[in-house]
Amino acid sequence: xxxxxxxxxxxxxxxxxxxxxxxxxxxxxxxxxxxxxxxxxxxxxxxxxxxxxxxxxxxxxxxxxxxxxxxxxxxxxxxxxxxxxxxxxxxxxxxxxxxxxxxxxxxxxxxxxxxxxxxxxxxxxxxxxxxxxxxxxxxxxxxxxxxxxxxxxxxxxxxxxxxxxxxxxxxxxxxxxxxxxxxxxxxxxxxxxxxxxxxxxxxxxxxxxxxxxxxxxxxxxxxxxxxxxxxxxxxxxxxxxxxxxxxxxxxxxxxxxxxxxxxxxxxxxxxxxxxxxxxxxxxxxxxxxxxxxxxxxxxx
Length: 300
Known about the structure:
- The chain has helices at 18-29, 44-52, 66-75, 91-94, 117-123, 159-183, 216-226, and strands at 11-15, 35-38, 56-58, 79-83, 101-105, 113-114, 128-135, 145-152, 198-199, 233-237, 240-248, 261-264, 267-271, 276-284.
- The chain is of the alpha/beta class.
- A seven-stranded mixed β-sheet has the order 3-2-1-4-5-7-8.
- Helix 1 runs parallel beside helix 6 (159-183) and helix 5 packs antiparallel against helix 7 (216-226).
- The longest helix is centred in the middle third of the chain and has 25 residues, at 159-183.
- The protein is elongated.
- The mean pLDDT is 94.
């Protein structure tokens, strides 16, 4: 049975999306109710949840400001939890809570430090996706690892599925950490820097499909890594941007010049560097027409 002594302590949680909201819901369900929530931009779903559960909500927070530092010192939180918050925490902020600050990172460490780790894992074709819980320090995702979990992701699943599964697993990692904290049985794991790799935070401009350089499997992974809730991988069709939202790998051999569109019954096939791939869902921005057989998707 979980020891009750932690419930009375004050927890700070910094969030801006579903990842943090799922952790918040989980904490509330386990009677961790002495919580203050911090957001840096308007989030209606988070605001509604805090109002419904009588939680203190701090909006438009600048975490490294003197005002916020003074507030932390005044309130003396036991632990801070960072879940997808968009601001970088300075070292003096990280160390102010009694038990420091922990961060929910959507990639296995140290192999996926940096930005967009879920997207990158799918782009890289990983069949098992990793997430980490770490004790924050002054480095970028360099803190000691508290917990690590992997989950399978099939080639038919996409970034939306990965977020959904990860958001259910992060609360498990956080609650497990709190139980171990209660029992004083924590076992932090130092990261091995020789295995470290940094990935940049992806922008929409990084989503260009290069048909002549990417094979069908690479295009498929690229598309499913960047689809909803993101804008989607893209190409150009007669100067119009085409968002490719869903593809399917096919056994049939369609070959030709990369980027060429082939109409096959009710489906469109686009030739990659090795063979064709089926386009299941796409949007041509600012254009109501469809792709035409024999035309090309290009880089500009």
